[in-house]
């Protein structure tokens, strides 16, 4: 670290300590709260996911996961997989360049957990096998999620899930990428995945 | 930076000239406000959440040095390089140095208000470092060489046809596209190769967590997760006020942020960065740029609680009908009007007057900043510092003297009634009366409340007292 950054740090710290208007004793740390609905049911998750533009992909009678994906994406050429349940056309670990990932039509991953309040699914370097950007380059995303790995709301998520303290990169994806930057029109499928579907598995 | 006061009213009048733009802007922002209300109404705990968010922010700001130290220590332990910048210029030099040390020259960037505040693009681009905004709204603003209009939806003042023209110029698309989907697709197609070839990723951040040394980025388009993760070098810039003490505190803020902003339960991406990716390098730049000074201002330090949701902008009748560009600043709307003068009291002296004082901004603020009170207090400060125009100042002084003396006031009122009835328009509506520029003066009344009261009640009250006695 250079002297210059040392001094900037010290100057800022000194300014804060000397000038700060709010006094420490007057503002005690509020206890952690858990407010609102804490229902962690799959039904609530499904409703929230739909609100965020995500979809459920229910398996048909006697159908496997890979078959279901092929049914929904019949035109798909590259199916990249990060889960043992799906064979796909290539494994996520086999992606050598981002350009390769850019050509992936459908990516399958397993989420560590889901949040019923928001329909969010949590992905980290563990689930993504360190391919952090590649999951976002794929055109469509299929997420496997266990009904046993649901938390009620965001208070529950941050208090109960250890992943927030262990993951280097952890994203809660709630539906696919979206934008409403042009004349307020909501567009699902902006720059990241165009669709996000969840399979209970 | 020019010191000339931003002519807010004049710029607003220009924006209002075009009816389709005026109408859309007003409706779009009000729609966001209504969607926010829908979320609020289905959550009985809403007010409790706001109270908790406010108290957490106040506590953190009162203990800021200690939490900054804690954040720095934990972030370093996680392998993040932590830098400190006293102001925008220092921030920009740090970014430049990081890039030079790596031999890099192209930044792919997700939306962050603070790099705009630091005028980073203006500094880096002449030095041969390209900066590409990858957020759609921010990219539109960059191509048009304009400041963001809104903290959440940067190009909200534009219509589809405006974007079509801009994209035609830079992306070679059809200038007559009238479908936003086609334009968003054009942005996706134009951004991909730039994202794939960028050597440095930059993001802002919504929260710093002292307990874990993490930072959190809340976005919708997916461009931030691409910008941060594609290159091996990730630089994140955040203001020093962005701290929360504990990971568990995020629950409160994440539940409020997007609901207050857009009326959606959460942003599509809520991303937590705690350490560099495998083989990557991560830098966090903590920027002061006037924040420590603001924390020392008794009347204004709570503006540092702001989580940049934009709810105060969406609800403000003045903002909705003047457009973000009229504020001449990175931060517009009510929140801009109370923080901009801390950057430059002269230049932004007009902004605290861009308010009707209806208090709606304060009522919707998820962290309970007393925005309209601070607008009022800024007016006082600016008047004391002689930062308001001569006519407004002198008229206020006269009004002050008049209002302080009941006899004089009543005499003046009866005079005004006569004047309103009898004087020709050019006497009543001139440069000494900017209020009358876009408004009609009130109709003269036959009788004031005071004279009516004197006639009908005062004597009766006296009689009543006498009979009681």
UniProtKB/TrEMBL annotation, chain B:
Keywords: 4Fe-4S, Electron transport, Iron, Iron-sulfur, Metal-binding, Repeat, Transport. Pfam families: Fer4_8, LUD_dom, LutB_C. SUPFAM superfamilies: alpha-helical ferredoxin (SSF46548), NagB/RpiA/CoA transferase-like (SSF100950). Residues 297-326 form the 4Fe-4S ferredoxin-type domain. This is Lactate utilization protein.
